[in-house]
Amino acid sequence: MTPSPPSETLIVTYVFAVTVAVTVVVYLLRGFGVLTFLPGAVLWVLILLSIATGLVYGVQKTRRY
After folding, report:
1. What CA–CA distance (Å, rounded) separates 57 from 17?
2. Distances, alpha carbon 49 to alpha carbons 15, 16, 38, 54, 56, in Å
3. Closest alpha carbon to 12 in 64, 60, 63, 62
4. Nearby residues of 19 by Cβ (< 8 Å), 6 or more positions away
5. Which residues cross the membrane (predicted)?
6. Angle between helix 7-32 and helix 40-62 axes, rounded to 10 deg
7. pTM for this entry
8. Complete DSSP assignment for the chain
9. Residue extents of the structural domains in the chain
């Protein structure tokens, strides 16, 4: 029986998962030509946001309480 993770870690996990999911969906839709009106800067912002939330998630996951 493992203890439940702290709520702060759980929130960061959800934010990371949603950010990665939105980035992948936008990337695929832009590649298929559905979202051609979206500038490349929006995609770069999403990718950098995914990396940043991934780093925060990694730090939170390894933090000892």
Report:
1. 10
2. 10, 9, 17, 8, 11
3. 60
4. 46, 49, 50, 53
5. 12-29, 41-59
6. 150
7. 0.82
8. -PPPPPHHHHHHHHHHHHHHHHHHHHHHHHHHTTTTTS-HHHHHHHHHHHHHHHHHHHHHHH---
9. 7-62
| Cα angle: 23, vertex 24, 30; to 5 degrees | 90
Triad 26, 33, 42: Cα angle to 5°: 35
- Which residue type is seen at 30? R
